[in-house]
Amino acid sequence: MSSFLVKEAVLITPSEPTPIQVLPLSALDSQLFLRFTIEYLLVYKPSRHVLDKSATVNRIKTALGRALVPYYPLAGRVRARTNGSAGLEVVCRAQGAAFIQAASDLTAKGFEGAPRHKTQWRKLLSLQVADVLKGAPALVIQLTWLSDGSATLGVGFNHCLCDGIGSAEFLNLFAELATGKQKLFTEFKPQPVWNRYLMDPKPYNKLYQQKSTNHPEFKKVADLCGFDSRFSQERLAPTSVTFDRSRVGELKKLLTYSQSSCTSFEVLSAHIWKSWATSLNLPAHQTVKLLFTINIRNRVKPSLPIGYYGNGFVLGCAQASAKDLFEKGLGYAAGLVKRAKDRVDDEYVREVVESVSSSGTSPDSVGVLIMSQWSKLGLEKIDIGMGRPVEVGPVCCDRYCILLPVYDQKDSVKVNVAVPTSAVDKYLHLLNTIGT
Prior knowledge:
The chain is an alpha+beta fold. The chain has helices at residues 53-67, 164-179, 206-211, 227-233, 245-252, 264-279, 322-327, 329-342, 346-358, 424-432; strands at residues 4-6, 10-12, 21-24, 37-44, 77-80, 88-92, 97-104, 139-145, 151-158, 236-243, 287-295, 313-321, 368-373, 391-394, 401-406, 409-420. The strands form three sheets. Strands 1, 2, 4, 7, 8, 9 and 14 form a seven-stranded mixed sheet that branches. The protein is globular, with a radius of gyration of 22 Å.
């Protein structure tokens, strides 16, 4: 059992006066399934043998206060709208972000693989927000010193306020201020843009209302095997497997000529989905889905402005029976992923916006693997004065599958997901076997 010493959280407020106002969040921001905290864990191994910890802490706290000036809603508090309409809003009164300093007897080497259990690293972001609408800070940062002189940075963002791209843009500014690379946040690119009305439904648009039911990501499927109870009752085993360019290339060689246009993401995500579903030994007719995030910033018309840091994604949905996914080969699964991506255009997004705003619909969990691609966010470049992180991952490894960057391996991807203990050996065998 690791030991932790956690100091009391302090609130860091914007370093300059910021607007006092209540800002409405968009229909996409207000979705039920986004009411949780995005939790990043970055591991640093400073090259200097002796780092001035006190100076480092002061520098990080100062940078946080300065970054919160242009991103002042992150210093606010999210709540349900008080005017009787559906959706959420953020109260901006410079309440502040939480900063925590801690110490642990863990070492950097301990983060190279998967945690022993899904909550092993929970204390590295010790302020856990159970309900993001109950007045908790929208942003929490914890710096934990490790016993070998390394450090971790745990960061929690209220997902209602930003998505992965938006949170990474904030962290980039925060890091540049912390290292002195950026002196004035007014010169930082991209400048943050609010404009949440852009992801609200367009008034009186009956076309989207009529078509909004045609989205498989929101349709419930029959549970033929006690799927949800298995994931809630059986212990989940964290896994972490790295795919380099050559291994992804081997997967692509399994595709036929007609399937050769599939991207690395499409073929790798299909392989993960197929391995995961097969390892669970599901009934042949159980419907399984792969839900994955699709950035819509350049898929809507007009495009969202550069610097828009709200939730600018929808879920793509690939769907098949467990039997077809097992029997029809990798190319079949990759094709399903590709088609799910290709159908996301402006009309598709507007249908989703209308659906989530009018009925509060949300994805079901039966037969579902949710995948999020953190490997393209640039988290591996976040240098807060201790070099680039040697490990990037989630604080807790759970049933969400996360694709992660790998230190000094630009074209490699680390696949993190927790699966039921009864399926973990088969899952790892299938994932590590480049077959059909």
